[in-house]
Amino acid sequence: MAASSSSSPRSGLLYYAGCEEYPHQPHFLEACFLCQKPLGNNADIFMYRGNTPFCSKECRQEQMEFDEAKEKSWNMRSLRQSDSNKSSSNKTVRSGTVAVA
Fold this sequence. Notes:
The protein has one helix spanning 57-88; strands at 3-7, 14-19, 46-48, 52-54. By secondary structure, it is an alpha+beta fold. The strands form two sheets. Strands 1-2 form a two-stranded antiparallel ribbon.
C-alpha cells in the first residue's frame, strides 16, 4: 500500500493523496448529493440531515420528498407485518414514531 501526501495549493497544508488500492473518494462537499453538480465557487450549499449537501433548495426538497415517501412505505409495511403478527400470536407489539429535538 503506497500512500503519498502532497501540499495543497489552497491551504499550504499536507493532505492524504490516496493509494492504488482504493479509488479517489470525493469530499462530501464537492458535489450535490442528488444531481452531482459541483459545489463551491462561493455559492450557497443547502444541507439536509446533517451532512448531505445540495446545490439548490429544489434538489434538497426533492430528496426530502423522496425520503418521506420511503419512510411512509416502510411504516405501512411494518404496520401490515405487525397486524399479521398480532393475529397469529398473543404478543404485544408497540409501534410509533420517536422524535428527538
